[in-house]
Amino acid sequence: MEAKNENHSMWKFRLTAATMTLIPAAVGINYVAKAFAEGLKLPVWLGSLGTFLASMLAGPVAGAISGFINNIIYGLTLSPISTVYCLTSIGIGLAVGILYEKGYFDKASKVLPAALVIALVSAVISTPLNVIFWGGQTGIAWGDALFAYMTAHHVSIWIASFADEFVLDLLDKVIVAYLAYLIYKQMPKRLVFFFKGNR
Question: For residue 135, is it within any domain?
Answer without folding.
Answer: no
